[in-house]
Predict the structure.
Amino acid sequence: MCREFKYADLLDDEVFKLVFGQESTKDVMMVFLNQVITDRNIVNLEFMDKEMHPTDFRKKRSVYDLLCQTDDGSRIIVEIQRRKQDTFVERTLYYSTFQIARQVETGTSDYALCPVYVVNILEFTLEQTAGNPEVRTMFRLYEEKTHSLLTDRVTYIFLELPKFRKGVEDLDGDILEGMYFCLKSMPTLQEQPVALKHGVFDKMFRMSELLNMDEVTRLKVLDSMTTERDLQN
């Protein structure tokens, strides 16, 4: 089975956290986020508790794939969604509310919020972006007619991987396109593409190689990847 897959699937929860969500791989996450979030320069971040509980125990809790905070206080939620879900956009809105509400202390009149970003990595396309060929789309609160920005305190970013159609022969060293390619195609590769033999990609491929994982993690990831392949088939 190890011969069948050399590299692990980055969209697998366990693997994504391994490659992007550890202190030792924080540089990988910062490179990725700086490519995706274009209105700020992230020079440091810390990983936060991913489980959020509402104040009313009868309401649904929220568990993020990854939650980060930058040195300027910005909160960044990163979510992977493999299956299409009718209420996915609504779920994204719900998830963002926790990071907005948690910033306001009880009894205060200060509503100076730090920005909240929700980055969604999707293995399907959204109806809301039909006709838009861009892999990355960004949504904020704008006035309907003038399109003037109401606030930049909440931003929703969607990365629709099916819209990325470049093969390994089309890669030219562009970091964001390289990230898209790895997220979409890593388990199909048997070697690191020449165009991606630089910078942060070396660490991504090293961390993703199944033989570099401990046996427990490797077997768990292989089982998950085999199940996912069977589901897709």
In short: The beta strands are 45-47, 51-52, 62-63, 66-70, 75-81, 116-122, 136-142, 149-160. The first strand starts at residue 45 and ends at 47.
